[in-house]
Amino acid sequence: MGQYDKKQKSYLDDNVRFAEIFNKSIYDGQQVVNPDNLQEINVQHAQSERIRDLAKKGTVKNCGGIIYVIFGIENMQNMIYDAPVKIMQYDAEEYDNQLKEIQKNNDKKFKKGSLKGRGSGEFVEKYLKDDKLKPVITMGIYWGSEEWDGPLTLREMLDASDERILKSVPDYRPNILIPSRMTDRKISEYSNGLDIAFALAKASKKKDEMDRVLKGIEFEKVDEDTYSFLNTQYNLKMKEKADERGYVNMCRAYDELINDKVTDAVRVKTKEVTEEVTKQVTEQVTKQVTKQVTKETQMKDLHANVHAMVMEGFSDEIIKRIVSKTFPDIADCIDEQINKERQLLS
After folding, report:
1. β-bridge pairing 136-142 and 175-177
2. Percent of the chain scoring above 70 in pLDDT
3. Interval 181-204 mean pLDDT
4. 156 pLDDT above the threshold of 50
5. Contact assessment for residue 133 and residue 88, using Cβ atoms and an 8 Å cutoff
6. pLDDT confidence of 153, banded at 50, 70, 90?
7. What is the longest distance spanned by two Cα atoms in the chain?
8. Out of 42, 143, 182, 225, which residue is the most buried by the measure of CB atoms under 10 Å away?
């Protein structure tokens, strides 16, 4: 099991987040799924090697009383072009599990003689007219950074364009949550850290957008589970510790991460520049340079800093903020250096 898969399962296994996925994604925010009533169930089919990511049994109230429902979540880190069939298999196998359990119990009853008078079909199949299966509802979640361009229905996977043929094939349309297609307003409706997770999933393709999301003031207080999940999911490598209430200041953690990356990048670039200069200058010039820091030397250092940060993919805003503190005397040259580096890259 990969690190992403393991962390995704652990994060969404929390009953509150698990329930919210369905309540917000399918039921328009209604509290249909009660997290207090969710129970873990076996995630492996009796006759198959396939294992679900997450599966729970819950109760749902309706006008006729209470019904039991099986809810499942399938995480997709990468593009899955067979997603409709894959999710359909999980659902079909869950129904098959239920069917076999019902047939097993009915077979015992038939042998004990407690089901006399039943039809021959019921006796053969061991499934009675009044037997019912529990509904199975699965939610696929696509966490990948690439734009989803795969099929969302079974019919979209079929090698057929004749409408007469397609109409005669029962379709299957799984529930698939794609954060990159969600509006910011829709994402903001989620809570318990899911709003942050989905916002970063949507922004993960663009460095500038990731900067904007991670610097958002609403992310100053993030619960420790969400912080740990995001650190793994997006390989952020942030080192901030949670406070006594279990919250992490994610904005500060990201600032520290940026400063660490800049320091490392500048250290490497400075070493390269120093080695090159050493080859070209005489011993006398080197002594003079070490005695007095001139504007020319500062410009070289400025160039090294800006070049390193542009190559690392930092946004112009972050470069200006950090470099202006290091070179206040020549801050008016920063924009020009950034533009030069951007032009060289293009």
Report:
1. parallel
2. 76
3. 89
4. yes
5. no
6. very high
7. 111
8. 143
- Rounded to an integer, what distance in angstroms lies between the CA atom of residue 142 and that of residue 80? 9
Q: What integer pLDDT is reported at residue 176 of this predicted model?
A: 96
What's the rounded mean pLDDT across residues 127-144?
94
Q: Please, are residues 142 and 176 in contact by the beta-carbon 8 Å criterion?
A: yes
Domain boundary among 135, 160, 177: 177
Least confident of 67-81, 93-107, 227-241, 273-287: 273-287
Q: What are phi and psi of 47, to 5 degrees?
A: -110, 10
d(CA 329, CA 294): 11
User: What is the identity of the amino acid at 38?
Assistant: L
Structure letter (DSSP) for residue 332: G
DSSP code string of 25-61? HTSTT---S-GGG-EE---B-TT-S-B-SEEEEEEEE
Tokens of 10: 């652990």
298: part of which helix (H) or strand (E)? helix 295-312
For the chain, how many structural domains are there in total? 2
> Does 12 fall in a domain?
yes
Q: With respect to residue 94, please indicate whether it lies within any of the assigned structural domains.
A: yes
For 215-247, give the DSSP string. Answer: T-GGGSSEEHHHHHHHHHHTT----PPP-TTSE
Summarize the confidence of residues 228-246 as an average pLDDT. 71
Spatial distance between the Cα atoms of 9 and 255, rounded to a whole number of angstroms:
28
Give 301-346 pLDDT, tens digit per residue.
778 887 887 777 777 877 777 777 777 777 788 788 888 877 887 7
Q: Which range marks the domain in which residue 22 is found?
A: 3-177
Q: From CA 53, how far away is CA 48, in angstroms rounded?
A: 14
Residue 163 located in a structural domain: yes
119 in the same domain as 267: no
Question: Which has the higher per-residue pLDDT, 163 or 252?
Answer: 163
Record the pTM.
0.70
Quote the CA–CA distance of 29 and 191 in Å, as a whole number. 11
CA 241/CA 252 separation, integer angstroms: 11
